[in-house]
């Protein structure tokens, strides 16, 4: 019975609200608008657009889908968010309804220009990951649950750009993985252009790097998971797969 009830609640949550993604970004008091999925295609050439385009709020289900890198179609944006290494970048989401699964922030160096890179060919590294804060996998307090604003307001997610990171142009990729459907993970990625400033000269080594797609697989028990098993009703740990987080 518990299994039926939780599945039904998940289904109703999906019917009642659209899915979503990162809509805007802030650094300090400055607001950087992302792609507006209800806006026109002329946004693609807008001098203010910092986020790669995405046309659909639905999740990506396949771990091998090239759109896993920067959503669909993930066409490049022209502008960059300027940010000093060591300061916080905040991603602003619309009302978010899912509560279970990890959230990650990734960076990839673009070289000279993020407009000419193919995101699925880049070397990505994690700068932050957020998982199960306490309680059980099934019903515990995930960062994703704490992130949801049940009053329907915007959900804010702030993470620090590593202080030692060398200056340059980077794609930043915010990823929410929602695991409420049995053995059917949902991936919500969005990417934006960052111009990192600072005097650091650090850069992560190969052990921190991953390809996207490539990093997630249905062979990973933390990704291909049924959170409603009796085992997960009792489990109080969840290890986020992939390479370690690089803190600079
Ligand atoms: Cu959804």
UniProtKB/TrEMBL annotation:
GO terms for cellular component: extracellular region. Residues 19-238 form the Auxiliary Activity family 9 catalytic domain. One of its GO terms (molecular function) is cellulose binding. Gene3D superfamilies: 2.70.50.70. Its cofactor is Cu(2+). Pfam families: AA9. InterPro entries: AA9, AA9_LPMO. One of its GO terms (biological process) is cellulose catabolic process. Its EC number is 1.14.99.56. It is found in: Secreted. Keywords: Carbohydrate metabolism, Cellulose degradation, Disulfide bond, Hydrolase, Polysaccharide degradation, Secreted, Signal. CDD domains: LPMO_AA9. Residues 1-18 form the signal peptide. Has a modular structure: an endo-beta-1,4-glucanase catalytic module at the N-terminus, a linker rich in serines and threonines, and a C-terminal carbohydrate-binding module (CBM). Lytic polysaccharide monooxygenase (LMPO) that depolymerizes crystalline and amorphous polysaccharides via the oxidation of scissile alpha- or beta-(1-4)-glycosidic bonds, yielding C1 and/or C4 oxidation products. Catalysis by LPMOs requires the reduction of the active-site copper from Cu(II) to Cu(I) by a reducing agent and H(2)O(2) or O(2) as a cosubstrate. This is AA9 family lytic polysaccharide monooxygenase. It comes from Delitschia confertaspora ATCC 74209. The lineage of its organism: Eukaryota, Fungi, Dikarya, Ascomycota, Pezizomycotina.
């Amino acid at each position: 019975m518990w299994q039926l009830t939780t599945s039904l609640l998940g289904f109703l949550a999906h019917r009642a609200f659209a899915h979503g993604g990162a809509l805007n970004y802030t650094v300090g008091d400055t607001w950087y608008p992302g792609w507006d999925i209800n806006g026109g295609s002329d946004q693609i050439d807008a001098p203010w657009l910092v986020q790669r385009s995405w046309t659909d709020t639905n999740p990506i289900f396949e771990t091998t889908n090239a759109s896993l890198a920067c959503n669909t179609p993930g066409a490049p944006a022209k502008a960059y968010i300027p940010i000093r290494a060591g300061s916080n970048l905040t991603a602003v989401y619309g009302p978010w309804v899912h509560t279970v699964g990890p959230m990650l922030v990734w960076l990839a160096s673009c070289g000279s220009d993020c407009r000419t890179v193919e995101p699925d060919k880049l070397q990505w590294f994690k700068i932050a990951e957020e998982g199960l804060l306490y309680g059980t996998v099934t019903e515990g307090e995930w960062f994703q649950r704490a992130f949801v604003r049940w009053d329907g307001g915007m959900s804010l997610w702030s993470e620090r750009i590593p202080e030692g990171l060398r200056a340059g142009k980077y794609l930043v990729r915010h990823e929410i993985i929602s695991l409420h459907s049995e053995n059917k993970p949902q991936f919500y990625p969005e990417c934006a252009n960052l111009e990192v400033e600072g005097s650091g000269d650090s850069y992560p080594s190969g052990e921190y790097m991953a390809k996207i797609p490539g990093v997630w697989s249905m062979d990973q028990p933390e990704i291909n998971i049924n959170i409603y098993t009796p085992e997960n009703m009792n489990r109080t740990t969840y290890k986020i797969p992939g390479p370690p987080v690089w803190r600079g």
